[in-house]
C-alpha cells in the first residue's frame, strides 16, 4: 500500500512511499482509508529529527471496513467508520481495534468526519470534566483552532455562556456564529469571572485564564500551542477576592489505551453528517498536496482543520 512516511530529506519531512500492508490482530478491523485530517502534534513530530525516517504517522482517518475483526468485536465489512490511533493513519489501509472506531452515517463526508477523533473527542471529554455547563460561563482559549471550535459549539449547545479567546480578531464573527456569546483576543481582557476554562494554548494565556476563574472554578489544559511555559506569580494561588478552591488539571486523550471511544465517535459523526456540528475545514486537497497542508499548519495560517483526501 501507499502511505505518507517521515522523510527528513523532504521539504515537509514527509514523502509518499510503498510500505507493507498492516496485518490486523484478531480484535482489529482493516479499514480502507478515504480521508485523513492533520493535527499540529503529528506534523511537528514528523519534523522532529528524533523521529526516524520511514515512520508511519497519522492519528485521524475515516474510511470503510474491508475486513471485519476476526473475533467479531468490530463492525461488518462495508461499514463506513471514523478511526483514532497513535500512528499509521496516513495510509491506504489501517488496522483499528473496535474501541477506537465509530460507525458513521452512510452519506457522511469522510473528510468532514475525519476531523473528529483528536479534536472532537478532546473537546467533548474535557467539557465533561468541567461538570454541568447549563447557565455557567465557560472560557475556551485557542477557540479558532481544531479543539477550540468544537468546544465552543458543544459548550454553547450544553447551555453555557461561552467566552471564546482567539488571538486573531478576524475570527470574532465566525466564533459568534458557532455559539460564542463573547469573543476576546486575551483572557486578561475578560471583565467577569468564569466558572470553567478549556485551555489549548498554555503559556501566558493559561496564567491569565486561571486568573479569570471564580471561586471553585476549574481549568483543564489540553494543549500548548503557544509553545511557551506557564509561569504563575506567587499571588496567583492566594484566592484573593473570594476566588478560592480553584484548580488546574491536564488532559491527554489516549491516556487509557482500553478506553472505548466508539459511541462518542459515532455520535460526533452523526452530528457532523446532520449539519449540527461544523468541522471547520479550512484546507482540503488530495494527499499528493500534503506539503502544502503541512506548511499551512506549521505556519499557523489555518483557523480550523486541514483534510487530505486519499486517492
Question: Care to give the gist of this entry?
Answer:
Helices cover 24% and strands 27% of the residues. It has helices at residues 40-47, 110-113, 116-129, 146-157, 172-178, 203-211, 262-273, 290-298, and strands spanning 2-6, 14-18, 28-38, 60-67, 80-84, 93-97, 101-103, 137-141, 161-165, 182-184, 194-199, 213-221, 247-250, 281-286, 305-309. The relative contact order is 0.16.
Describe, in plain words, how this protein is organized in 3D:
- The chain is 24% helix and 27% strand.
- It is of the alpha/beta class.
- The chain has 2 domains: 2-115 and 279-309, Quinone Oxidoreductase, Chain A, domain 1; 119-250, Rossmann fold (3-Layer(aba) Sandwich).
- Strands 3, 4, 5, 6, 7, 14 and 15 form a 7-stranded mixed beta sheet that branches.
- The protein is globular, with a radius of gyration of 20 Å.
How are the SSEs ordered, and which strands pair?
Elements: E1 2-6, E2 14-18, E3 28-38, H1 40-47, E4 60-67, E5 80-84, E6 93-97, E7 101-103, H2 110-113, H3 116-129, E8 137-141, H4 146-157, E9 161-165, H5 172-178, E10 182-184, E11 194-199, H6 203-211, E12 213-221, E13 247-250, H7 262-273, E14 281-286, H8 290-298, E15 305-309
Parallel strand pairs: 8-9, 8-11, 9-10, 11-12, 12-13, 14-15
Antiparallel strand pairs: 1-2, 3-4, 3-6, 3-15, 4-5, 5-7
Amino acid at each position: 500500500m501507499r502511505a505518507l512516511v517521515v522523510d527528513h530529506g523532504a521539504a515537509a519531512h514527509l514523502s509518499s512511499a510503498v510500505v507493507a500492508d498492516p496485518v490486523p490482530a484478531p480484535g482489529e478491523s482493516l479499514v480502507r482509508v478515504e480521508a485523513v485530517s492533520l493535527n499540529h502534534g503529528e506534523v511537528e513530530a514528523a519534523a522532529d529529527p528524533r523521529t526516524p525516517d520511514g515512520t508511519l504517522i497519522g492519528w485521524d482517518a475515516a474510511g470503510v471496513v474491508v475486513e471485519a475483526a476476526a473475533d467479531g468485536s468490530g463492525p461488518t465489512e462495508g461499514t463506513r467508520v471514523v478511526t483514532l490511533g497513535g500512528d499509521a493513519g496516513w495510509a491506504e489501509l489501517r488496522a483499528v481495534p473496535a474501541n477506537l472506531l465509530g460507525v458513521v452515517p452512510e452519506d457522511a463526508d469522510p473528510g468532514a468526519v475525519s476531523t473528529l477523533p483528536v479534536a472532537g473527542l478532546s473537546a467533548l471529554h474535557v467539557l465533561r470534566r468541567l461538570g454541568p455547563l447549563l447557565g455557567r460561563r465557560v472560557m475556551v482559549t485557542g477557540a479558532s483552532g481544531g479543539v477550540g471550535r468544537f468546544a465552543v459549539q458543544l459548550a454553547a449547545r450544553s447551555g453555557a455562556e461561552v467566552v471564546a479567546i482567539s488571538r486573531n480578531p478576524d475570527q470574532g464573527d465566525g466564533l459568534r456564529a458557532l455559539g460564542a456569546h463573547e469573543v476576546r483576543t486575551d483572557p486578561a481582557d475578560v471583565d467577569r469571572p468564569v466558572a470553567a476554562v478549556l485551555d489549548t494554548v498554555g503559556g501566558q494565556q493559561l496564567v491569565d485564564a486561571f486568573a479569570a476563574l471564580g471561586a471553585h472554578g476549574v481549568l483543564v489544559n489540553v494543549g500548548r500551542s503557544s509553545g511557551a511555559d506557564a509561569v504563575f506569580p506567587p499571588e496567583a494561588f492566594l484566592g484573593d477576592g473570594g476566588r478560592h478552591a480553584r484548580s488546574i488539571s491536564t488532559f491527554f486523550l489516549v491516556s487509557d489505551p482500553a478506553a472505548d471511544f466508539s459511541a462518542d465517535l459515532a455520535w460526533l459523526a452523526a452530528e457532523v453528517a446532520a449539519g449540527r456540528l461544523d468541522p471547520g475545514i479550512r484546507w482540503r486537497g488530495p494527499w499528493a498536496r500534503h506539503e502544502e497542508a503541512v506548511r499551512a499548519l506549521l505556519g499557523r495560517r489555518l483557523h480550523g482543520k486541514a483534510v487530505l483526501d486519499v486517492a
